[in-house]
Here is the input.
Amino acid sequence: MYKSKDCVSDRIKKIILDRICDGTYGPGQRLVELQIAKEFDISQAPIREALCELEAMRIVETEPFIGTRVRQINNAEWQECLEIRGTLEQFAAEKITDRLKNRIGKLKQIASETLKAAKKHDIQQYGLANMEFHRLIVEASENQTLILVWESLANEVRASATLYATAIDLIRAAQDHLDIVDAFAEGDNRYAGKLLKIHTETMLINTTAQTPV
Here is the structure.
């Protein structure tokens, strides 16, 4: 089946983002269009489109005569992203009403996946499950503006997560997820929102002294 250039660029964008998030591409590393195109045996056009989209997401940056590099997110930006994301998630939880009622089982399954990954200290798998957990909650708000803003912050947080992983108690964070699920299951969305905010604040406290290299 024919795949459009847009489909190819979307696939490449996801692969590059995943590699940045799991540390394959480190902060400051150059991303050369020609090399990536050769790796996937495709033209440079979809690679260029993927990198442009990642630049719009503030994941990479391009400088004249230097090229495209993985953007280095400093400690202050990380802190700011977490602060805003925590507030957005608390707001989302309070606005969900009963829209998570039929998805509690799915939410608990994802929370369990984060705990399993945390116990193995599998940072990549933890990051993927963690994003899915928080995204499911935010998307249940059905507030498209909130979702859009959250997505822009979430990708920055995820892209920097490996830099701060040693400062975060992943098992404690994963157990927080299970507590949040219990609050939603009991219909106490306001308390679930409070737990989400505390969950983020704990990450802030634990990473305050951590500065990316």
Summary: The longest strand covers residues 60-63.
